[in-house]
Write a structure and sequence with these properties.
The chain is 46% helix and 14% strand. By secondary structure, it is α/β, with parallel strands linked by helices. Helix 3 packs parallel to helix 4. The chain starts with a helix and ends with a helix.
């Protein structure tokens, strides 16, 4: 109920068309089903889930072992059955991204998941090198290719100010 109420608010006040939920445990799956029944489009997210990365042992590739890879495929299928219109797959080996994509009929969006997903995304903060805090440098995933380092310029300008 609370998730649905908050999702309606985000959609309405934020001008959004969908929400994204990380994970595929039984509680999340029930939430996906509830939101979809209520008319809210939901995108799933499996693999590295940044909002709970500390429970995964930090920013580490997921699905590198056979059992983990099979579980990610299972999670993607469950999200599809719950009504998700697409699923983000983050920080998994290329072959896992490919296997998940082949096993579901909904689009997959890869973030560091190889070139076999239905689409690719790179967070623009990472692409532009906006985050200059020492903590971010320690936890930034290896697949985050930086094309600039504007964070240094921003940091220097703020210090000068």
């Amino acid at each position: 109920q609370e998730a649905q109420r908050n999702a309606y608010r985000i959609i309405k006040e934020g001008g959004m068309e969908a929400v994204k939920l990380e994970g595929a445990d039984s509680q999340r799956l029930r939430t996906v089903e509830t939101l979809v029944r209520g008319g809210i489009a939901v995108m799933g997210h499996i693999g590295l889930t940044p909002q709970s990365y500390s429970t995964l042992g930090g920013f580490r590739a997921q699905g590198r072992k056979g059992k983990q890879a099979v579980d990610l495929i299972r999670q993607a299928k469950l999200l599809e059955m719950a009504g998700a219109f697409a699923t983000v797959i983050e920080c998994v080996p290329d072959e896992v991204g490919k296997a998940v994509t082949e096993e579901v009929s909904i689009p997959t969006i890869g973030i560091g998941a190889g070139g076999y997903t239905s689409g690719q995304v790179l967070v623009y903060h990472d692409l532009l090198g906006m985050m200059q805090h020492p903590h971010h440098a320690k936890v930034s995933p290896k697949f985050c290719k930086q094309f600039s380092a504007v964070g240094v310029t921003i940091h220097e300008a703020l210090q000068d100010f």
